[in-house]
Write a structure and sequence with these properties.
It is a single chain. Helices cover 11% and strands 54% of the residues. Strands 1, 2, 3, 4, 5, 6 and 7 form a 7-stranded mixed sheet that branches. Strands 8-9 form a two-stranded antiparallel sheet. Strand 1 and strand 2 form a beta hairpin.
């Protein structure tokens, strides 16, 4: 499967500020990640720090609460802030929260079944 790209709007739920961007859906990542410049532009509130494992090793990143919109659906989402990314990365938690999954055949997001078992 190739890369899956989506148009995303990331917003600050407290100020209403938002940024539109093209984002890479990273099915190997748990959380979504934004570049530090987006974090600074949106003035997102930091709610903690999260230890994560990256290709470069373990690091601690600021964790924020934002609003993420993809394909017309919006939800609150935890996002991490990184100095090492130039474009937003959408981890698996965000599409699942929005009710999407990656279709490995088409390489696009599709409607997912939501289970409450």
């Amino acid at each position: 499967m190739g890369r899956v790209w989506v148009d995303v709007v990331i917003g600050n739920p407290f100020t209403g500020r938002s940024v539109s961007a093209r984002a890479l859906v990273d099915i190997g990542a748990t959380y979504s990640v934004i570049p530090r410049r987006v974090f600074e532009e949106l003035q997102l509130p930091v709610i903690g720090r999260r230890s994560v494992v990256t290709a470069r090793g373990s690091v601690e990143l600021d964790e924020c609460l934002g609003v993420v919109e993809v394909m017309g659906r919006r939800a609150y989402s935890h996002v991490l802030v990184s100095e090492d990314v130039d474009t937003p990365l959408i981890g698996t938690v965000t599409p699942e929260t929005l009710g999407f999954e990656v279709d490995p055949i088409t390489g696009r997001l599709k409607e997912a079944k939501i289970f409450l078992l």
